[in-house]
Amino acid sequence: LWQRLSKKEANDINSVQKSIVHHVTTTLARSVYNMDNFAAYQAVALSTRDRLISQWNETQGQLSRADPKRVYYLSLEFLLGRSMDNALLNLGLKDTYGKGIEQLGFNMEEVIESEVDAALGNGGLGRLAACYMDSLATLDYPAWGYGLRYNYGIFQQRIVDGYQTEYPDYWLNFDNPWELPRLDISIQIGFGGHVQIIEDEYGVTRHNWIPATNVQAIAYDVPIPGYDTENCNNIRLWRSKPTKTFDLTSFNEGNYEKSVEDATNAEKITSVLYPNDNTMAGKELRLKQQYFWTAASLDDIVRRFKKSMREWSDFSDQVAIQLNDTHPALAIVELQRLLVDEEMLSWDDAWDIVTKTFAFTNHTVLPEAMEKWSVPMFEYLLPRHLQIIFDINLFFLQKVEMKFPNDRGLLNRMSIIEEAQPQQIRMAHLAVVGSHKVNGVAALHSNLIKTTIFKDFVHYYGEDKFINKTNGITPRRWLHQANPQLSDFITETLGNTKWLKDLSLLKGLVAKINDDAFRKKWMAIKRANKVRLAELIKERCNVEVSPDALFDVQVKRIHEYKRQFMNILVVIHRYRTIKSMTAAQKASVQPRVVIFGGKAAPGYYIAKLVIKLINSVAAVVNQDPAVGDLLKVVFIPDYNVSVAEVIVPASDISQHISTAGTEASGTSNMKFVLNGGLIIGTLDGANIEILEEIGEDNIFIFGCMANEVEDLRHAQRYRGVPMDSALQGVISAIEKGVFGDPKIYQPLISTLTVGKDFYLISADFASYIAANQAVDQAYKDQSEWSKKSIRCTANMGKFSSDRSVKEYADEIWNIKPYPVIDEG
Ligand code: 26Y
Fold it and tell me: Is the pLDDT of residue 26 over 70?
């Protein structure tokens, strides 16, 4: 084997092996002769980590010296998934490590699969943050992420008797080689207490916040290597700890238990990720998380700025801060507090700096997702911040009044404080007022927010403040890593790997569309990916599915607006149709495997019932001999990033079927199409822009448009529009008990009652069935289908997160790449 390798390669493999063995025998204190896959994973991870650390040090050292403007991406969620495969590919070392580990008797794929996901996020928003970090690093932007180091990521989902049950995701059980604890970086964060007003010798009043309790924030750094660059960025995650001198008073008073209890409360702050996606719960601990994180991050950012000995007026020339939704909106208030109370700037000077520094990304228009905090609870935790919010609001509303006098309704609507019982702080309004730019995440969504939730603000500030930044995904993880066969084939076809850094180059594939051999290979790769998914389905669901059937996938968080319910209702319709067929008719049915996956928020009753219904339908359909392989239904438990990496390359068609106007963007739609999967979807979110890029012949669109939704709801409510007749048939089958005790599903079925069908399942039902039939028809012509599939991939250049990140850098952050110089 050695002889078949070039000398350089052998040397590289040799040094890689040495480093692996070194970690096995020292760090892990094990023997190379007594190693399992997990130990091999740990050793490879530690060895890779060494290389990451040296790149990290080099990058951060050079950046400290040059001190260019940086962007800080504040996100409560970073859904990174696994790191090893990604790090090795980005460093260009996967082959070397693969060969090195093989010679030690291990299989790289198995070793990779030993890693647990870093699942510090719920869904789209958290995964977007991870894709953006990959692109920022790859494009050499000086960027840091700031987040929380939760002990428990998103819960693990198991299906018991058809129901979702949640298990804790204690992901740090076996140590995390991808983080660097910075035990020396510790910041005190206060809570509660009171505000002192001091008058200085010149008669100027100052506010001094005296917190009642303090906790410590400890930094953990996660290196983010770019692809094919020396640049290595950072995500700094904060962990809460009791302060060293934790509550000495109660300790000295002999109240030992109480002081230990307070210490436990401090640790609680970063204990668990809230598992709600798009539904606000208003819990005190969540507000504590938000303040703990924003205060620690700002302290760190301000400390770094102060090292450069510049004027405060230069702050926004050195620092851009992006708010990933309203979750970090408190950062606006905290920076104003630091500048006014601690750095003694005037209110107006401080506010000018604040608004030039922050920009805000909105990810939703759903009312239930809008963050609001009760004023009394907020005051108890953050008394000084409440005063500042009231002042920000007062000065803001005074300006509104100047511009539009005597409009109390307007002031009421625009106020940061909602006059409810008790009063509520509207975090979205705070984020808009405190930022210089506000963006939505797809063209339709960015327009919608201008005419709905932020309408008055557009009127007041003008159009320029409200912009669009269509989401993107990183082609490194979502094609190169997840679909290595297709990636290699594309590289072979295009002649090089440049497309991985300039995704528009995929256009070059169009020239191959009429090449039969090319198309055959393209489809063979898809089939191989389907075989791999079929194995996962066998393993996780114990169902055998044929890779020759059409694979139809809907994987995403379970939510009423995403309409998984509508999907399963049409599956039932399909089932009933097949059952009513003669053998001759059945012969022309296109076999289909309908694949679901996704988590429901633990308190979201209706979403959990949808999961139960899917599993009950699967149980009936999969064992019905009258149906056989013509239809299979599976619910893959515990959908997460690493499962997505298996599912995405294997789909023929995927479902993105939200009621128009409800899905801000969607990003899995991009992942599927990039991997040559077609989509069936509504005119919603980024589907619209995907349609524009790939052309209407390569996508199956159905249903109403966003601007029709209000009228349809109205008609349904007041004109007694009857329920769709096919839908009626499906409902009566459920009610007859075809899928088990119908009483279980009553609350679910009630959501379809005429006049209450908020997500318009009935209105879109007929066109959805028709679109599904069109899919079956199209799939039968495999040659035409393969052309569509290639056209899909070829035209997805726009949806690289590199493009998104460049737009943010140029139009919002005003930052430039700072390439790290390789000093050997
Ligand atoms: C307030 C709290 C409960 C909350 C927590 C998480 C609210 C929202 C979220 C998460 C939202 C989210 O993931 N939104 C999704 O963001 C994606 C990236 O922009 C979009 O593609 C997707 O359409 C949107 O639903």
Answer: yes
Mean predicted lDDT score pLDDT of the chain: 96
Per residue in 95-132, pLDDT tens?
999 999 999 999 999 999 999 999 999 999 999 999 99
Distance CA 418, CA 420 (A): 6
For residue 10, with 0-12 CB atoms within 10 Å meaning exposed, 13-18 middle and 19 or more buried, which class applies? middle
Model confidence pLDDT, tens digit, residues 282-331 = 999 999 999 999 999 999 999 999 999 999 999 999 999 999 999 999 99
Sheet strands (E) in 48-112:
70-74, 78-81
Q: Tokens for 154, please give them.
A: 């998103």
Q: What range does the domain containing 183 cover?
A: 67-82+117-471+809-813
The CATH code of the domain that includes 630 is 3.40.50.2000
Are 465 and 479 members of one domain? no
State which of 364, 469, 474, 604 you would mutate to test the pocket of ligand 1, scoring each by most atoms of that ligand within 8 A of its C-beta.
364
Q: What is the pTM of this model?
A: 0.97
Query: Atom 10 of ligand 1 has which residue's CA nearest to it?
Result: 277
Q: What is the total count of domains within the chain?
A: 2
Whether residue 680 is found in the same domain as residue 764 = yes
Which protein residue's CA is at the shortest distance from atom 3 of ligand 1?
A: 280
Q: Going by C-beta distance under 8 Å and a sequence separation of 6 or more, which residues neighbour residue 732? A: none
Classify residue 48: in a domain, yes or no: no
Query: Quick one: pLDDT at residue 201?
Result: 85
Q: Both 578 and 608 in a single domain?
A: yes
Q: Give the pLDDT score at 200.
A: 83
**One domain for residues 532 and 423:** no
Is residue 237 a part of any domain in this protein?
A: yes
Is 340 contained in some domain? Answer: yes
**Which residues make Cβ contacts (< 8 Å) with residue 742, sequence separation at least 6?**
734, 735, 736
Distance 704 CA to ligand 1 centre (A): 23
Please tell me whether residues 500 and 616 are part of one structural domain: yes
Q: Catalytic amino acids?
A: 363, 556-557, 562, 667, 671
